[in-house]
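Researcher: Please generate the 3D structure of the following complex. Treat every line as part of one assembly.
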Amino acid sequence: MNRAEGVRPRKRRSDGERSREAILRQAAELATVAGLDGLSIGRLADAVGMSKSGLFAHFGSKEELQLATVDWAVDLFDTEVTGPALAAATGRERLDELVENFLRHVVGGYPGGCFFASIVTEMDTRPGRLRDRAVEIMRGWLELLETTVAQAQAEGTIAASEDPKQLAFELEAAMFLANVLFVATRDQAVLDRARVAIDARLAAAAGPPPSDGTS
Amino acid sequence: MNRAEGVRPRKRRSDGERSREAILRQAAELATVAGLDGLSIGRLADAVGMSKSGLFAHFGSKEELQLATVDWAVDLFDTEVTGPALAAATGRERLDELVENFLRHVVGGYPGGCFFASIVTEMDTRPGRLRDRAVEIMRGWLELLETTVAQAQAEGTIAASEDPKQLAFELEAAMFLANVLFVATRDQAVLDRARVAIDARLAAAAGPPPSDGTS
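Model: Done. Output below.
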């Protein structure tokens, strides 16, 4: 809650809103450890020290709680990863920042690493609204990488011969595996392996550097 | 069960062994859909049409059942992926076959894709024997890729300047993401993206082709 209080919202939040924010933060952290399916109202009530009936008043059902948690995690991801990256001046800078912000988020975001990697692998075989939402978010992230590659191509920093879908897949592959291995082993070396892979891939995609003298 | 009967073992299996084999196959399939944690003795009893007490006679506890299922999945992976690949004549051929056999296994192996990708992402934050085993298997697979890269380097088909750990990470990254996206979307294009990525990476790792005339 201290972290939430550090942010000064435009208008004063009601107790209800503040409490909802704190509950969803706890819910998102729990989901990366116990799974979205392990996010029962009873278990979350224990974790936040509220009554089950109090939580029901907020969310109504387990599925509503799960969907609200996913939305909260999307907002956090926008705040920590995509938002700051998209503020960069060029496509190539945005791409570098998407990667770097993601890898930092893997370490500092949740106890179980990337929330979306966690839910997409959990929900992939369970048809329903949660699965659809998880797949939609994963698709959206890949499309953001593709669009950013295309912008860098339009600016001439990535070769026109590259297929944006293919390049986005390769960047995401290194980030995704780094997340999985970091959560499983807590070995920072895997994050560096992703950086090395992505730097080399983007250097190859850029083609030969422009001749700019010795400066 | 028909598939199990198609294999003729060296000695006739007892009813007990045959039934154990059939139970574990069903258990492994179920685990890739419901998770290893969803693999309760009650749920599996329903799936195989046995009594809970009958299953208890085989496994004794949920954890024993889960560990036996992991061992069974290791055996299947050896049969379908690593075994045939390691029979190839050269390091480079072994590497190509590890990749191709893995991608074929993703499509044809289990309803939930790669068993080990499934359990490592489920168990990564849950300390215990299952987590340790999942991490150990994942490490073993990466080490197999590294060793095979090193063999190809010794044979001169991969440049000595490549770091086997780094290259193994990059090959696995493409395979891992292809598995996740295929299970989530059933889109075969993601498997081809992994193939394109890996072929290009291995071509770059090989350095310039040897000059061998026009044949």
